[in-house]
Specification:
The protein has eight helices and six strands, in the order H-H-E-E-H-H-E-H-E-H-E-E-H-H. By secondary structure, the chain is α/β, with parallel strands linked by helices. The chain has one domain: Uracil-DNA glycosylase-like domain (Uracil-DNA Glycosylase, subunit E, 3-Layer(aba) Sandwich), CATH 3.40.470.10. Strands 1-3-2-4-6-5 form a six-stranded mixed β-sheet. Strand 5 and strand 6 form a beta hairpin. Helix 4 packs across helix 8 and helix 5 crosses helix 6.
């Protein structure tokens, strides 16, 4: 993938998911996020001091004819921002990819580096924000700036997409907002996020999509037991129907 210095405004002109990925990798639209991702890549965590960090926008990852998308929040500073791949090299990725393997979406249960051989079949990992934000909190302006990437990915996946799993309240709201702008009949007011929530949507052209809510696979949720492997498995099994 060759990075290009361009912004999310060009996302609508892309014809393939690979083109969207290239725009993400070369995006400099948000000065605060660019400064932070590059600072982290320079200073590094001591345990990764000998590694070269990616330090750019992190593209989505997975099957380009996915039946299911998993919508996160943003890459982690020493996970995706280091490895260059969504949910790779951090505890969240460990939990999620192990669950995807149990469900049959992943060919292996681990996600350690971008060249570790992980392949996702039938599923794609996407995010509303593609740069690691300070304190894991992108600003409203940063979220809006990055939104065209998710929108274009959903458009390009439309022929095969049948399920979407939103990890956490922000992923849920960002996904529903984007779908509502694309002709999906999202109820008003929008349904609130809850783990295990399920929402059946119909598009103006007759297509159907089921949205599933799942607590985020963050270490805070998994270490405290708020989210267990069994809870993740139940959500993923529902996407196989």
């Amino acid at each position: 993938m060759t990075p290009t210095r361009s912004g999310p405004g060009l996302a609508r002109t892309t014809a393939t998911l690979g083109e969207v990925d290239a725009l993400v990798a070369g995006c400099f639209a948000c000065p605060r996020l660019v400064a932070w991702r590059e600072q982290v890549a320079r200073e590094k965590r001591a345990s990764f001091a000998d590694q070269t960090y990616w330090g750019r926008g992190v593209p989505s990852f997975g099957d380009e004819r996915a039946r299911t998308v998993v919508v996160g929040l943003a890459p982690s500073a020493h996970g995706g921002n280091r490895t260059g791949r969504m949910f790779t090299g951090d505890p969240s990725g460990d939990v999620l990819v192990a669950a995807l393997h149990r469900a049959g979406y992943a060919n292996q249960p681990t996600s350690r580096s971008a060249d570790d051989g992980l392949v996702l079949t039938g599923l794609r990992l996407v995010a509303p924000v593609h740069c690691a934000p300070p304190d894991n909190k992108p600003s409203p302006d940063e979220r809006r700036a990055c939104a065209p990437y998710l929108a274009r990915e959903l458009e390009l996946l439309a022929p095969t997409l049948r399920h979407a799993v939103a990890l956490g309240a922000y992923g849920w709201q960002a996904l529903l907002a984007t779908l509502g702008e694309q002709g999906w009949q999202v109820p008003r007011p929008r349904p609130r996020f809850a783990h295990g929530a399920s929402l059946d949507l119909t598009h103006d052209d007759g297509r159907s999509l089921r949205v599933h809510g799942c607590f985020h696979v963050s270490a805070r949720n998994t270490y405290t037991g708020l989210l267990t492997p069994e809870m993740i498995d139940a959500v993923l099994v529902a996407t196989l129907a």
